[in-house]
Amino acid sequence: MNIALLLPGQGTRFTEQVKELWLESPEARGLIETAERQLGYPVSEWLTSDLSKDTHKAQLATYVGSMCMYQLYKQQIGLYPSYVLGHSLGELTALTIAGAVSYEEGLQLVDIRGKAMKAAIEQQESLGMMAVFAAPEQVEALAAGWDEVYAANLNSEQQTVISGTRQAIQEFVKHHQLEGVMLGVNGAFHTPYMKEAAEQVYEQLGGLSFSTRLQTQVISNKSAELYNFTNIREEIAAQMVSPVRWKPSVDYALSQGVQLFVDLSPNGMFVKMFKSPDGVFAFHSEETIGLLRTELKDDIEVNRHYDVFSRALGIIVSTKNNGTDAEAYDNIVMSGYNRIKSQIGKEASPEDIKQTLSLLELILSTKEVPADEIAEYCNRLAWKIG
């Protein structure tokens, strides 16, 4: 099954019921404790608080909560996602899931971003955002000729979020006879109003390191295509002033063969957004988790029976040998295969996992499997056991 995960952005509020699901998981509970220990903030309290007036707290709470939801997905479903898509702030969650940054680095990144955006908001007055019930193409065309109003989130065929000054937004919808609802934020995100904040974030990210060896693919808000990892720092900053091209991003995932989307928001936000839930499954309650498990029961059952050693052997036997060195084949491929096979049934330690991944990469290189295929095989295996 070709699966994509959908991660929410700022403004997400988690319920006590969702939080209880996390607290039952040592892994998810550990994420909350790590955030509080590293940052010194009462993140656990923030998760279920109304943070609509504090974008810094809201972004950190959303990031931590979304990573807890992701841990729950790994434990309850455990099926590899071919793609991850994050809405606005959720793109940083997607980058963390993909392995571009560690969770601890992600906390630092979100802390920097949230503080910069909060400072920008405090220097500006009467800004806001409105969800307009109209197609993105229509709203973009109208906003192109209007001062102080921008199409900020291209969410779905029926919804576009506009940003700008509150007065200009009200005049815009009245003039064009549009219907909309003001959002509970006091900033104009994903517009040039965030330029100074984006510049500050770019500057402060100079000390962070990023990995381009990913465990899964990230689809970019800005381009609605695969994320550009040639300059991650620049992409993160540019995303803050660029529209969130959400519908085009989902369309791109569909064009790449995604068969099922898992909505990791705490309230089924994306299911509601698209108003056509076929292929989009919520994941925020015991009931919705149960429905998803039923939908994927055959895949989950097959997945459950394979450990790291069995998976590695499956990859080795399913890849074609393009090499011509018979001695290397015997000494590396066959020897490595037998070494991995001898460990089936034992409980894999972290060191066993590390050695198996290294040996798998060596075997596939000896078979002259293309480098991009080797990376994909190893990354998929790393995700399943990581």
From TrEMBL:
Give the keywords, sorted. Acyltransferase, Transferase
Alphabetized Pfam families for the sequence: Acyl_transf_1
The keyword Transferase appears for this protein: yes
Q: What is its EC number?
A: 2.3.1.39
Name the source's superkingdom: Bacteria
Q: What class of enzyme is it?
A: transferase
Enumerate the catalysed reactions.
holo-[ACP] + malonyl-CoA = malonyl-[ACP] + CoA
Domain Malonyl-CoA:ACP transacylase (MAT) positions: 6-296
* Name the UniProt record assigns to this protein: [acyl-carrier-protein] S-malonyltransferase
